[in-house]
Amino acid sequence: MIKVFVPATSANMGAGFDCLGMALSLYNTVIVDPREEGLILDFPESDLPLVEEGENNLVYRTMKETYKIVGRPMPGLYLRQINGIPITRGLGSSAACIVAGIIAANALMGQPLKKRDIIELATRMDGHPDNVLPALIGGVTVAAMENERVYYVKQMSVDFVRFAVMIPDFPLPTSMARGILPEEISRKDAVYNISRASLMMASLITGKVENLWAASDDRLHQPYRKKFIPHFDDIVAKAKELGAKGMFLSGAGPTMIAILDKDYQRFQYEMDYYTSTFEDKWEVHILEVCRDGAWWEEVEA
Ligand code: HSE
């Protein structure tokens, strides 16, 4: 029996649309046990309809595709999915399923795929490297695609900050959040984003917290997506008042993330209290960067 752990991720990190991402200390667990035939899927009923049933299940489909790519027949399977990562909230739940599926299949086959194969396969399946890459290797990552090749850098730790992850109780499908974005932007806005995405990564590497508010700003996606999130501007203003050093939408949203360098518990308490006055229910978690990304172990049945 193989048990796989995959961290949540936050893509974009402000201006780094489709290229910056980080792994967070919140996890999905997937347990797979090969059988002669058939598929037994095991996940809490409360995850329906957001988790696909039967052979449509994303972890299962990914495993099947991985076996096909390696050229081996897929065995029957018991598959248990424990979704610690909230689904369709901008925290990389789909990427986590894809990463879990590839790692589980590779482990059952005796690891024919190496790290680079896995990164490129996961990116091809998900469509973007900014969620799958940090889920696989952890840390804060920057990635660029050249044809099918992924060029990347990983910063292992950003120990001087924590992340207040604010998760609302309503989902926002990525397709909807991408559908609202303009096809083209001006050179001025392109420069605005290139400078801020670079500033975010460089400031996280060098510990320059004073740059993070400016580095979080963006003209590619957040101004369009925030209309799906009631109280977006109120939450940003409150986070600033409570001393946050920067703030961005997590992935395609609706989760919002504030960067903190102190007073984590106070921020959590105050923001929890503030958002409790809203019509939607919000949860506030203080998380840190998951340094190493997904891992697996063999466990007794
Ligand atoms: N970079 C992607 C987006 C992440 O913002 O649409 C989606 O998970």
TrEMBL record:
ATP binds at residues 86-96. Pathway: Amino-acid biosynthesis; L-threonine biosynthesis; L-threonine from L-aspartate: step 4/5. It catalyses: L-homoserine + ATP = O-phospho-L-homoserine + ADP + H(+). It comes from the Bacteria. It is found in: Cytoplasm. Belongs to the GHMP kinase family. Homoserine kinase subfamily. This is Homoserine kinase. It comes from Gehongia tenuis. The gene is thrB.
